[in-house]
Amino acid sequence: MIKIALPKGRIAQESLALFERLYSGNFVFDDRKLILEHNDFTFLLVRSQDVPTYVFHQAADVGIVGLDVIEEQEANIVRLLNLGFGKCKVVVGSPVGKSLDYQKPKLKIATKMPNITRKYFANKAVSIESLKLYGSIELAPLVGLSDAIVDIVETGSTMAQNNLKIDEVIMESSAYLVVNNNSFYEKKEQILALYNELKKITATQ
Hints:
The chain folds into 2 domains: 1-85 and 172-201, 3-Layer(aba) Sandwich (D-Maltodextrin-Binding Protein, domain 2), CATH 3.40.190; 87-170, D-Maltodextrin-Binding Protein, domain 2 (3-Layer(aba) Sandwich), CATH 3.40.190. The protein is 33% helix and 32% strand. The protein has 8 helices and 11 strands. The protein is elongated.
């Protein structure tokens, strides 16, 4: 039995759709249930940000989660396969009509992803103050809380609707298959079989 952590939302839905194509039956969570057992798999439905934690501590053998979450959490887990769906970008954004002033002693950046933000600006040798927010990131520069934001975008339409523009792309992200280090050795045959099946089906998409 392989335990698989899935993030609530679209990535979980697309992941389960892949399993339905690979294995017989309906891979659907019952209403309000957080655990689904089917064939040789047990699926755990968790918050996206918690997937690396479940995998790192071996509460799950395997996880499927966005690369942006993996980079932000900095967990010591094995990245096995880019599944190619759930695509988005992590970007720097600021109000339309304004440019980022890198001459300021310290830029204020609002974000849900302080680790990615810190590393990106450190590599540019830019001093920042990172403001950790949990929602409505786009509001921060509009009311003077921050100079800019670091956020996830798919099409950029939400930023445009809030009179923000994309200044820089930090990274591109998509869903990855990740594995606990110990589980990879303890259940290597099962995990590699799953990896090979997923690799074949994602290669045709």
